[in-house]
């Protein structure tokens, strides 16, 4: 549908004399692709239309609708209170469905990111603790790659920014444990391990735990070396075949 729409606009713009609206729309879309930057006004209008279409045809709590609403706000929203209310309404609406799936985990993860990005660290931690403190939600979150890692990471980030370093260290280690478990289940996780080790090392240095920080640094270097060796093996196999 996206390709068909773009082709239609391009054909329409080409058939009209200069100055017509369709030509201007096409120029904006074309320039966004060429320059890698979307015109803010056009992007905002496209976002609103996409959200309304998804809400109408897929439903207000469909995963795509929620994703577009969150991305739309993160890209164009400036009112913190409005953003908080929007996400709270999402979460309450999902909770009313009495199920817990990727949508719930994703909304809560994005809420934690939202709160932390606006310096509301206690609220960010509270959202995460609602999940990791609930055995059922915790178990369900493990089904979705990267979600539980990011929840623990946001909890660690909240505590780190607050200067609660001991708690931050524990949450970074919890995040790493999840990432390593995902690797053992062959569900990815290597990028998360490297990310987690970087932040754990910083936390330990802030605590003055230099020896332990060096151990973490060595572990990170080991993971990098292992990743490069794996990449080399894959390249050699692809060349042979």
UniProtKB/TrEMBL annotation:
InterPro entries per UniProt: TPR-like_helical_dom_sf (IPR011990)
Entry protein name: Uncharacterized protein
Organism this protein belongs to: Bombardia bombarda
């Amino acid at each position: 549908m996206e390709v068909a729409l773009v082709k239609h606009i391009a054909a329409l713009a080409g058939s009209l004399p200069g100055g017509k609206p369709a030509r201007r729309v096409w120029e904006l879309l074309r320039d966004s692709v060429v320059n890698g930057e979307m015109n803010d006004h056009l992007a905002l209008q496209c976002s609103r239309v996409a959200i309304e279409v998804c809400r109408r045809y897929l439903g207000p709590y469909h995963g795509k609708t929620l994703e577009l609403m969150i991305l739309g706000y993160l890209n164009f929203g400036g009112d913190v209170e409005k953003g908080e209310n929007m996400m709270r309404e999402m979460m309450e609406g999902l909770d009313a469905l009495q199920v817990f799936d990727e949508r719930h985990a994703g909304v809560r993860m994005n809420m934690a990111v939202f709160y932390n990005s606006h310096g509301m660290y206690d609220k960010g931690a509270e959202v995460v603790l609602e999940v990791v403190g609930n055995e059922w939600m915790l178990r369900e979150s493990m089904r979705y790659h990267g979600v539980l890692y990011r929840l623990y990471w946001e909890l660690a980030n909240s505590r780190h920014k607050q200067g609660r370093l001991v708690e931050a260290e524990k949450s970074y280690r919890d995040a790493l444990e999840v990432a390593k478990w995902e690797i053992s289940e062959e569900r990815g996780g290597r990028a998360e391990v490297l990310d987690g080790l970087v932040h754990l090392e910083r936390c330990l240095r802030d605590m003055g735990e230099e020896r332990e920080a060096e151990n973490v640094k060595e572990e990170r270097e080991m993971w990098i070396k292992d990743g490069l060796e794996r990449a080399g093996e894959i390249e050699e196999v692809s060349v042979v075949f």
